Each structure stands twice: as C-alpha cells, then as structure tokens.
Amino acid sequence: YTGLLSTKQLSEQTGLSSINVNKKLVELGLMQKVDGKWTITDLGLDNNGKVMAGDYGDYILWPAKIINMIK
To answer: How far is CA 29 from its chain centroid?
Structure first.
C-alpha cells in the first residue's frame, strides 16, 4: 500500500501531534471512535482511507491528499 500514511506519518508531515491529527480526521468526518476504537467512516472510505489489520488491532491508513485536508 504505497502512498498510504499512518497517523504517525501524517503527524510528521504536518507538524501536528498525533492527537491533533486524529481530532482533525474526526472533525472532517473521516473517522470516529466507537467503543474506544478508531473506525473509518463511509466518508473516510470515499476518501481512499484503508483499514488494515495489525498485531495490536486494526488501524487506518490515509492517502497523502489527506495532508492538505488536515493542515
């Protein structure tokens, strides 16, 4: 999945903390927290976000275009 970025990578690219990146993604309606876990919304999927399965649970990757949306 080249070209897709984690929250940490979005944080590094924008200079925002990971907490603020997540906050912006929620404000934009791209993801939400359900039962203490981040989940992608339909709008997030429409914007090419991808849910990946990791060793410690699912996580979301975002296309680079999201950088401009959260700055």
So the answer is: 11
